Amino acid sequence: MDGPVQLAVVSDREVVTRGVVAMVSARPDLVVPLQVPFSPLGIGRVDVVVVDGYGGGDVVRRTCTHLHELAPTPLVVLLDDPRSPGVVDDGRSLGVAGFLPATVSGPELLDAVVRVGRGGMLPGEQPRPDDPLSDRQRQILGLIVEGLDNRAIAEQLVISDNTLKTHVRSVYRKLDVTSRSQAVAWGLRHGYGSP
């Protein structure tokens, strides 16, 4: 994907809508929030929709169903406690790309929106059946697929170079690959980014 991620926010609560927009507006090179309040009718390209899951499963189900009727279907990040009964299952069955708690920080939200908008996974997502990696290893593989070098990954994750190297070796071993390019190829085949 070229250019910044186009973001829309769906919430009945103005504080959530304006809060999300404020949190991502500092980096217009990465994310461009659409007009507040969001109306899905007559809108152009939308890469990510942040849905406020405050109302629970019924609200999430109605909102996601409505969003799926739009063309093209935007990716959805659900802002709610992902441990809420039924919310994860409802969201997953409706194609929610990832879940974030309502207590997410600005940098975490920005990272999640950019990652999902570019076709990646969110750290902490439920692993796919064919994905043998831990949450941290998925996060590292996603950054490798994005093209970051080891030093940049270690700095972003606030870990030492040696700790990162240990994680990278574990990723290679679990994926049965021997090089960075093979790991990137595996990641692209399994939804960690856009080719």
CATH homologous superfamily descriptor of the largest domain: Response regulator
- State the order of secondary-structure elements, H for helix, E for strand: EHEEHEHEHHHHH
Number of strands: 5
**Helix-strand makeup class:** alpha/beta
- Overall spatial form: globular
Rg computed from alpha carbons, rounded to a whole number of angstroms: 17 Å
Report mean pLDDT, rounded to a whole number. Answer: 76
Structure summarized in a few sentences:
This protein is of the alpha/beta class and 195 residues long. It folds into two domains: 5-117, Response regulator (Rossmann fold, 3-Layer(aba) Sandwich), CATH 3.40.50.2300; 135-189, Orthogonal Bundle (Arc Repressor Mutant, subunit A).
Topology:
Blueprint: E1 5-10, H1 14-24, E2 31-33, E3 48-52, H2 57-69, E4 75-79, H3 87-93, E5 98-100, H4 106-117, H5 135-145, H6 150-157, H7 161-175, H8 180-189
Parallel strand pairs: 1-2, 1-3, 3-4, 4-5
Q: Can you give keywords for this protein?
A:
single chain; 195 residues; alpha/beta; Rossmann fold; 5-stranded parallel sheet
Structure write-up:
With 195 residues, the chain is α/β, with parallel strands linked by helices. The protein folds into 2 domains: 113 residues, Response regulator (Rossmann fold, 3-Layer(aba) Sandwich), CATH 3.40.50.2300; 55 residues, Orthogonal Bundle (Arc Repressor Mutant, subunit A), CATH 1.10.10.10. The chain is 45% helix and 11% strand. It is built from 8 helices and 5 strands. Strands 2-1-3-4-5 form a 5-stranded parallel sheet, with helices on both faces. α5 packs across α7, α5 crosses α8 and α6 packs across α7. The longest helix is centred in the C-terminal third of the chain and has 15 residues. The model has no long low-confidence stretch (mean pLDDT 76).
